[in-house]
Amino acid sequence: MANNEAWMTAEVGGPKRASLITKPEVAEAMIRRARRPILVIGHLAAEIEMEDKKLIDYVIDLATNTGIPVVATAHTGNAFLGRRFTPASIMSAVDIGNRLADPTWKGIDGNGPYDLAMFAGLPYSLAWTLLSGLKNFAPHLKTMTLDNVYHPNANWSFPNISIKDWIINLQAIIRDLGE
Amino acid sequence: MKIGELKTDFGNIKDLQLSIGQAKEEKWEEPMGPTPFPSLTTLREWDKKLLERYKPFYMPFCDMCCLCTQGKCDLTGPKRGACGISMPAQQSRTVLITVCIGAATHIGHARELVTSISEKFGKDHPLDVGGHNVEVEAPLIRLVCGIKPETIGDLDEVLDYLENQLTQLLAVTHTGQEGSSVDFESKVFHAGMIDQVAMEVADIAQISAFGFPKAEEETPLIELGMGAVDTSKPVILVVGHNVPPAVNIVDYLQKTKLTEEVELTGICCTSLDISRYTPKAKIIGPISWQLRYVRSGVPDVIVVDEQCVRADLLIEAQRIHAPLIATNQKNCLGLEDRTNDRPDDIVADMVSEKVPGVLILETNQVGEVATKTAIQVAPKRKKMGFFPKKEELKEIARKCNQCKECRRSCPNDAAIPEAMKAAGKGNFALLEEMYDECVGCARCEQACPQKIPIHSMILGAAQEKVKEEKYKIRAGRGAIQDIEIRQVGGPIVLGEIPGVVAFVGCPNFPKGGKEVAEMVIEFAKRRYIVCTSGCAAIAAGMYKNDEGKTAYELFPGSFEAGGVVNVGSCVSNAHIAGAAVKIASIFARRNLRGNYEEIADYVYNRVGAVGVAWGAMTQKAAAIASGFWRLGIPVVVGPHGTKYRRMLLGRRDKEELWYTYDARTGDKVYTSPAPEHLFVAAETKEEAMVMIAKLCMRPNDTSKGRAIKLTNYVDLHKRNFGSIPDDVHLYVRTMADVPITMKDEIVKMLNEKQWKERTIPDPTLLPRMIRKAKVKV
Fold first, then answer.
1. Chain A partners of B725 at a C-beta cutoff of 8 Å?
2. For residue A128, what is the enclosing H or E element?
3. What 3-state DSSP class applies to B187?
4. Which CATH superfamily is domain A21-178 in?
5. Which of 207-246 (B) contact A at CB < 8 A?
6. Residues B152 and B239 both lie in one domain
7. Which domain holds residue B155?
8. Count of CB atoms situated within 10 Å of the CB of B16
9. Which of A16, A72, A126 is closest, CB to CB, to B76?
10. Model confidence pLDDT, tens digit, residues B448-467
């Protein structure tokens, strides 16, 4: 499959499609540039195994290193708390999506709207539709997915990559942003 | 009557037209409300009130419009199409088309039932859905149309109205009609409302004509599952939703004393409805069981009617050498029409495989043809095995080159390549596990470049599970009795029964049907009233607890706290909405007749009901949900539900949205964000359960009721999310609302949030319902 094919074959993107994160520096630059970034993490983060860790462990490392607030969707809050990490909020995926689409939303902390939303661990088709909503109705917001599959509706997405490459990329991002 | 020209002694008459509608004595004394037979815009203001609170969050499933030759048009972001349409309007337009398809299906189904029942039983055949136990026999027809139907013939007028409205609604979706997304959404609600009425027409007609259970609490327990079939007998499979052909099969079996000799099995709503006709019928499973049951090779003849029948069922039937009989004009499958041929000639052609199947549009022939065919075909077919054997699985799996196309085509992103890899090494555990979560679409097979029969392999690996698939489901009971409504109306409206949760719809589940059963059991244990219908009702029965019992064996079938009430098939959904409406009528003594807005306002503010369509997939499911929305009843769908393109979401952080009138004083008072959403997708079962408990809260809850509801919400949140919800303070109006067992932690939160006590209003969104307007100085 090509790098920029939607992971689910039939979920072809529209005329506006995500740019590829071809190397960790691309994602790092986006995150560094953002004034108000946020992470939205779905329940699969606690299920997806990445060698000796799970996706959620990388998310916690990233959030801890950068101070980026985490919204835990579904029952992911339980998995975060089990790892002694407290998410900034627990909200359903469509609820946080709806708020992110609102340019007047002051954010979880009341300090203003977010300018970069990063997603990981949501079921593919749910993330696909959610990102479509934001692509179409949140011009004030950039979106990026940290999953290892291509999401055409994000602004930035990894291509379809192996777990090994995914780990290398995430480790680099976490390391570089922590410096 | 038309008279062109008539010369009489008293003068000449030219072009006289005289039409006589229904000349009928009016016996119903209830005064007519303001909106009988509402048009497309009659209830627009009510819809706008709801849509102001629950603004659509559009999630386009496609960025383009390709409905006219000026397109395709790219509507991404702020762009407009060649016709001027915007993305929000296009999304809501697509929702309207979807819901119109669903409503058309129910209306068409209802019309066909009423026509065939009228022909067989006469238009004067009385409507009877529960004798004296159900005086309000058609709450939705009364509410929407303002008439009280008494006979099958009375339903014609209702259907005329529904067909008219549907035509108008579909016209709205033409290029250059509606341009506002809000108006499209209002029309979606209208389509949902007429869909509910259509379902009621269909079900009360078939209950009355075929003697289905009439609101009985304890209907028979029906055998369920592939393992329940006696494969030594000839087996007939019926698939679809329109029950008359299946009824004819039962009648023929009884007439020829073959009931014990032939197995009658069914899938989807036809199976639910035929099990309401005879408890001897066996239900195989929801529609996702079609392919697996056919591929098992067990059915000897397949009879399809309409709706949700796989389009490739004829091809699949041919693979197992099972003749197929199509019985409905809407689903002819390319088969030759043999309606007027002699039954024995038709049977001979199918038994000899001269033809793969036939179309028979006269229901009275279906029973004879299906039975004779099954009996003659069965001895030839029983030797055939169709699932790959375990020893074959390993060899087939080795063909897999790990290209992952199967996984990329699976709606649930199932790890098929990994399972294939293991199977190639002789480990079939992963394949077998997949059986429980597979939705039975077989897209994986379509995608596989190696032509590996992946779905059949899953079935082959799970053969032991298939044999053990033996469950019990309570037959659909139809309506809710008036006496039940009297008994639970108060506790529901006051909040002391924490909610009515209805599990409805299709089986496009993210992790198998077991999750539906688990949710049903969870809420029944918590003393909610749990209703089920359609494929969700079947899925709810396909799970046993440690004692080997299904939800239907564990809980009573009565409409009471802790009851699990299977109302029946898809069209029986009308009884769930009808129960909510009947609470307003029977318990609160509000007039139903043509009084939609007031009743919806009552239901919205007082009846803590939630619909759950965990595997919602079809256009009918969209229509069913839309009908609930207009009544103010929220609907939760599974993660695939976002593909319906938009949610209707409230914002609990926007205080200004949650003000309502206090009907006692006319004051506008802050209530709570209750219910918070009108249409919302949950990502997981755990999230759905928390959401359901929360969405059952209503502004009218008494403190006792609110405390009970909060207990469930907080407890489920803590159990599933690991913490106390951060919005509890929004739902506590007075200290008496706080559950005693959770007092310390909730009071701590109230203090942190600087919570202030507030009044509990007599809530209404309608200024005209204010009893005493506040005098302003």
1. 90
2. helix A124-137
3. helix
4. TPP-binding domain (3.40.50.1220)
5. none
6. no
7. 88-210
8. 11
9. A16
10. 999 999 999 999 999 999 99
